[in-house]
Give the backbone structure.
Amino acid sequence: MNVSLTLEGGLRIDTKDASDWDLFRSIIHDANARKVDLASHLGELITSEVGGEDWEEYVVPDLREEFQDELAQIHASIETAAFNSEAGAGSLWIRREDAFAWYGSFNQARLALEGIHHFTQMDDLDLAHASPEQQAAYIRSDFYANIQMLLLKHVLQ
Amino acid sequence: MADTDTLTRTEESVSLDLPWNVVVHDDPVNLMRYVTYVLMKIFGYDEKKADVLMMQVHNSGRSIVWTGDREKAELYVQQLQIHQLKTTLEKAG
């Protein structure tokens, strides 16, 4: 997989085979893997002392919709680009105007993976002894973070 | 009775006037540069101020990023949560 900047201020990601598209599809799967969805998790931070019940009723649904819209948007982009690829080799274009949805989707996935696996509490030895599933999740999380850093540095202004 | 009613109304009036803090909390996932970006975007802070607040979040675990009336504070908390930052609301002082 190669990532490059476009003249329009976006990113272009060139894939080599079908596994690259599966990696992108994992973003949505990982983001939805948490037991408590992100919107509820953030909403729980607003305690009853400061109006938590109202927050749960009026704000959390909007957050949930926003987060799901982000995932739906990138899902559509991924499937369109994958469909247009030839035997997996193709290009995924992240336009400047879509960058926030992409960044948010990667973030949802990393937040979910951290909530499940607690990678930031592990050292290298822990990771070496982790299950194949955990190691794969760590690699995906690291990939998502690297794309986020490129988006932050070059696209999100 | 009349005195009690007057006292109640006065307390309600004072409560609404108290400023509220918007507090961003540290988390192990959100990138530091992203936190700075969000603070600049939502509050219009320059990069220097946003960086100072971000470093407070990183080093102290939390930072009061804005203080003011409750209605506006709630709006800011909502916007920060849309950007996936751990954010809470608290009475100032």
Notes: Chain B is about 60% helix and 20% strand. Helices of chain B lie at 2-17, 32-43, 47-60, 70-82. The two ends of chain B are 32 Å apart (CA to CA). Strands of chain B lie at 20-25, 62-68, 87-91.
